[in-house]
Amino acid sequence: MNHTVQTFFTPASAHRPPNYQILKEEHEVAALGAPRNPAPPTSTVIHIQSEASVPDHVVWSLFNTLFMNSCCLGFIAFAYSVKSRDRKMVGDLTGAQAYASTAKCLNIWALILGIITTILLIVTPILILQAYT
Question: Which pTM was predicted?
Answer without folding.
Answer: 0.58
